[in-house]
Design a protein that fits this description.
The chain is of the alpha/beta class and 359 residues long. It is built from 17 helices and ten strands. The strands form two sheets. Strands 3-10-9-8-7-6-5-4 form an eight-stranded parallel beta sheet. A two-stranded antiparallel ribbon has the order 1-2. Helix 12 runs antiparallel to helix 15 and helix 13 (281-296) runs antiparallel to helix 14.
Length: 359
């Protein structure tokens, strides 16, 4: 099990903060599938948080079923990050995370995200201010963590040094995405480099991130890097049930079966229902038109269903299309295409990650 400061998690498999995707409905969906240790909100801008803009309040929305909940903030030393972190505590965060890894211009051009990796001294001072503010405000019950990349580029691999400095000022855990900022999401994540961070900070847990799209990848990442937990981002968008299967593999050595095609449609139906409940039918329909392509990556050839969702006039029409598809797929006794590929062993996944792409 994984412990972040005073917060004990029931699983060491974690849902990452994913810009544009980890709204309350999706977090609840992943939790309902099982195996989620903690789920993070979408990225929250420090200034927008304190202004309580409508969009930010939507992104930060949580509920009693969304526990433990982490809120990730981004900004720089000129932004009111300590105050925003205290706001997050007041609005339901059990963990406050500082974004030090986002490579996209929207974040990094404002001197947040990955740009914090370019000045480790100033970033450590900022983290210290946030830790002290949250400790005072929460009475020590809410830990502050950081999510980073290996560095800006391979010539400036700062993650081990920065992690040590952050641990010294009270950061309770660090998550490391095994890529450099200049890579964005290209190439392969360097799990061996994550091990260097693990060895640099034995006093706090290091959570590995990058290229975990199958349950076996979570096991292989831990074996390769020695990390204490695994954070999943894009893999969750195509398979929200990955947390249940990864946690089962890590806890018992057995991954369990891939859901059947009809069962996957049930998950999509539940996602639609949760989105309607928490966002309303109009926004739920927009969300599902965007998300169906991700689900399709785990379902084989379902072009008619994807087109039906994309062209549906409203959420009710989407539901009808999904119900019809479920009835059709329920007649299929064999597991869906990804399951038929056959599961690789954890060792095979390590070898595949090192010598070739794995999706």
């Amino acid at each position: 099990m994984l412990r972040i400061g005073p917060v004990q998690l029931a699983s060491n498999v974690i849902l990452a903060p994913i810009a544009g995707h980890t709204d309350l409905a999706f977090r609840l969906l992943c939790r309902e599938q099982g195996g989620v240790g903690i789920a993070y909100t979408d990225l929250l801008n420090a200034r927008a948080v304190l202004k309580e803009t409508t969009r930010t309040l939507d992104l930060a929305k949580t509920s009693d079923a969304d526990r433990p909940c982490g809120m990730q903030l981004y900004g720089n030393s000129e932004d009111p990050l300590p105050e925003a972190a205290c706001w997050a505590v007041d609005h339901g965060a059990q963990v406050v995370d500082i974004n030090m890894g986002c490579p996209v211009d929207k974040v990094a051009k404002k001197n947040g995200g990955s740009l914090l990796l370019r000045d480790c001294g100033n970033t450590t001072l900022l983290a210290s201010r946030i830790v002290r503010a949250v400790e005072r405000h929460s009475g020590g019950r809410v830990p502050v963590t950081a999510k980073m990349r290996l560095g800006w580029d391979p010539e400036h691999m700062v993650a081990p040094i920065l992690a040590r400095q952050l641990a010294d000022v009270g950061i309770a855990a660090v998550t490391v995405h095994g890529r450099y900022t200049v890579q964005f999401f290209s190439g392969k994540a360097d799990w061996h480099a994550i091990r260097q961070v693990v060895e640099a900070v034995p006093q706090i847990p290091v959570i590995g991130n990058g290229d975990v799209t199958e349950p076996e990848h979570a096991h292989a990442l831990i074996e390769t890097s020695g990390c204490a937990g695994v954070m999943i981002a894009r893999g969750a968008m195509r398979t929200p049930w990955i947390f249940r299967r990864a946690h089962a593999l890590l806890a018992t050595g057995t991954v369990g079966p891939e859901p059947l095609l009809a069962e996957k449609v049930d998950v999509i139906l539940r996602h639609l229902a949760l989105s309607i409940l928490h966002e309303g039918e109009h926004r739920a329909a927009i969300r599902m038109r965007q998300h169906i392509a991700w689900y399709g990556k785990s379902m084989g050839h379902i072009k008619p269903l994807k087109e039906a969702i994309r062209t549906a006039a409203n959420a009710a029409a989407m539901r009808d299309a999904l119900l019809a598809a479920r009835e059709e797929y329920a007649a299929i006794a064999a597991p869906s295409a990804p399951h038929q590929r056959g599961a690789l062993t954890a060792h095979e996944h390590v070898q595949q990650h090192e010598h070739g792409p794995h999706g």
